[in-house]
Amino acid sequence: MERRYQVFVSSTFQDLEAARREISSALLKSDCFPAGMELFPAVDLEQFEYIKQVISESDYYLIISAGKYGSIHPETGLSFTEMEYDFAMEIGKPSIRLLHKNPFDALPGSVLEKTDDGRRKLEAFREKLTKARLVNFWSDPKELGQQTILALLDVKKRNPTQGWVRGNNALTVDLMNELELLRTLAAKKDRTRTETLVSFDDLSKQTEVHILVASKNDEEPYTKEATAKIANKDIAEAVFRSLISNRAIASIGRAASDILTTNFTFPAKYDGFDHVWLELDMETTEHFLHYLESKGLVGGNASELVSDWQLTTRGRQHATYLSSLRNLG
What CATH number matches the domain at 5-158, 3.40.50.410, 3.40.50.300, 3.40.50.80, 3.40.50.10140? Predict the structure, then answer.
């Protein structure tokens, strides 16, 4: 079963945009999905709680450090980048560390800390990073693609993780047990029946979702090429199916995007790209989660940024029933 991995990429932002592009491109070539500052370039305390959840749900953590220390948390006195690193270490997240060899002598002043205090904090942070068992050093962002690929091979070997699989292949142990029971019951009944516990037939409109493309030689990790109109009924089902093994909005949206991509026929003009996929943004994902909530299929805390969506008892019954029909058909 093909697995993919999420890698949280941590760094200061504006001074390392080129480095992040190289790393994101390398991750995509390695069947990984980058996550990190692109979600929230201007982080604050509330968003940091969400970022902690994304780090927790990622398979691996990667940090890039150069000449900037980053924005400071007013209470801890640490940069948000260092706080991300400390949290990743606290929860034992397998990590990759990529440090610039000599930022203070080799980099221009525009990408260096301007104050003595900022430089001292950066030096202390670099010392913390270099005390780790495995650290890779770089001097040119163009080196980072190959370094990332090699580091990934090593960290996957030393710290294998579960990764994630397509939503239509992912079942929990409990759901597998329920499925087996329901399969036995369904086999005794008329296999031509077509009724479902819940229908999404009340959704008659369509929603535009982005088409993303990427090629191995592109400088950018991906580009938003166009949009595609997807039936709301199909989106609702994809979001529902993704809830079988995901609980956070970011993970739900990613899994639902993969389900939609698998079932979508892209025009021939996209044949020249190495990767083509559909992307549900967070706002659209949350909209359909609320729709499923209105159907009594899911529950979650919509007032909190760090959400915890999951199937209700009715939702689990419906998921198991649909799965049994697919397996019996």
Answer: 3.40.50.10140
Print burial letters for 253-281: b (CB count within 10 Å at least 16), e (below 16).
bbbbbbbbbeeeebeeeeeebebbbbbbe
Decide which of 3.40.50.720, 3.30.1240.10, 1.10.10.10, 2.40.10.350 is the CATH code for 167-328: 1.10.10.10
Single out the residue of 51, 72, 64 nearest to residue 9, CA to CA: 64
Contacts of residue 41, Cβ cutoff 8 Å, sequence gap at least 6: 13
DSSP string, 253-265: HHHHHHHHHHH--
Structural contact between residues 101 and 47, judged by C-beta atoms closer than 8 angstroms: no
CB 308 within 8 A of CB 248: yes
Global confidence as pTM: 0.56
pLDDT by residue (tens digit) across 271-286?
Answer: 888 888 999 988 899 8
Closest CA to 140 of 38, 36, 22: 22
Q: How many residues does the chain have?
A: 329
Q: What is the DSSP letter of 73?
A: P
**Strands, DSSP E only, in the chain?**
5-10, 32-36, 60-65, 95-100, 136-138, 206-214, 223-231, 275-279, 298-299, 310-311
Please tell me the distance from the alpha carbon of residue 33 to that of residue 5, in angstroms, as a whole number. 6
Closest CA to 183 of 72, 26, 305, 328: 328
Q: Kindly provide the residue ranges of all beta strands, DSSP E only, lying in 232-311, ordered along the sequence.
A: 275-279, 298-299, 310-311
At 180 the three-state DSSP class reads helix
Mean pLDDT of 190-197: 47
293 by Cβ neighbours in 10 Å (0-12 / 13-18 / 19+) ranks as: middle
